Amino acid sequence: MSTGILVRMVPGYPHGGNIRLILGLRASHCTFFSFLTLLGVHTTLVGIGWVGTLWC
Description:
Layout: H1 2-9, H2 17-39, H3 43-55
Helix pairs in contact: 2-3
């Protein structure tokens, strides 16, 4: 949610390098949380992954 606000704040940044970086990091951590949800047999991992995926 915060990343979307940040991207809107700097739409004219040269070459959009920072925007691509921010979106890439967001995508990677969302994938990580989804992976935790799938991987986590342990309840704690499932909980962290599920909450993280919702937050994305």
